[in-house]
Amino acid sequence: MWDKIEHEGFEIWVLPILAFGPSAPTTLWHYSAYVCRHGAEPHLAGQSTRFYELVKTFGTEDEARDAGYRAGRRLVDSFAG
């Protein structure tokens, strides 16, 4: 399920993704995410910036989500820098 936080006037949306097959106690996770301005239409071209991590794996769904949020914050901070 997609989860969202806000950072510096942007929304950061993250979706943890199972790395392999069905959920099991040793399941590994990736994430897909995007950043957009509050109120934007992210499905329209130019309204969002998408990013993902499909190489590195995370031990839990929460770890994948937190990694996505950290990457999103860095991305937003780079817009201002």
UniProtKB/TrEMBL annotation:
This is Uncharacterized protein. It comes from Paraburkholderia phenazinium.
